[in-house]
Input
Amino acid sequence: MPYVRALMLLFTLLPVLASSTFAADPMDNWKPKFDPSGAEFTYILSCVGHPAIEGVGVGYRIRDKVWEKSNGRLYVDFRPLSQLGGEKDVINKLQLGAIQGMMSSSVAAANIAATLGVVNLPYVVDTFEKLDRFRKTPELWQPFRDAALKKNILVTDITGYGSYGWATTAPVRSLAEAKEINFRIAQAPVNIDFYKAWGLKFTVMPWPDVPQALQTGVITGLDHTPIVCNISGKFNVAKNYTELEYAQGLYIHLVNTRWLKKLPTDLQHLLLDTISAESAVARDLTRRQQAAEIEAAKTHQVNFFTLSQRDKEQLIKLARPVYDKWGEKIGSEYLSQVRAALGS
Output
């Protein structure tokens, strides 16, 4: 994990670097070790995430592998850290063809095509093992892959940022204690529906607003993963984490098909094959990274809890109307097929 730790240290030092007259551009650390100006084709790839997250940093590995394999013909211009704007804006740019690719968070992707919301439903694709099975099972993966083709978008692969749970300022060891928390949740229709069904207090809030809201007590909990909470410093305020593990946080790699079809056939295959190979590596690294970030958080006095099996079963029971509602949008037959195949 030395690469990840180096990135974490860099972003800890960003305020200092920014205040220094003589500071170098911190993005220099990720600039390519080659001159991309001679590339015949450029693939602009956006992501809002932090490159210290394995499922985000994969963008740089894809960049370097594609450059090498294409002998400098295709340059993947990877732009993490919301350099091209928030996810809603970037989705519009992708559909219009202003950019060619996007690693969209799974919570935002449901705004593109309802079928993509299947991975956000609670306790459906909720573990690393189920995610692997989902990706490797053609009858489950193909409808997901093709869900946005009518909007000229192809789902090429997925990476992750860990298992969802609750980071809170007060311990949450039961559903009763959870009802005392005001949770920040993402701007995503699926999440809004199941938080309503769970009967929990929540605030829909853009990610950049979270630090101040958490520090001032506007929110007292955060629906997110241990990787993100530790790397982004949320555990500095929210010193408790409930390992709910109701879903996997994913980055869904989307490509504009109109642009893709204009690429020479050999470069199309090269790009898609490289995305697939590196995404598989990133998913494995994410599993390891989550374990490492949990251990790192524990050394800084973050308390970890799990809900009882009874409380988890209650969450599933309360979410039944959400499964019905989203089954109509996703396709009830497909949702049933996914749940049956994954034992969900």
Q: What stands out?
A: Residues 2-160+250-292 form a domain with the D-Maltodextrin-Binding Protein; domain 2 fold (CATH 3.40.190.170).
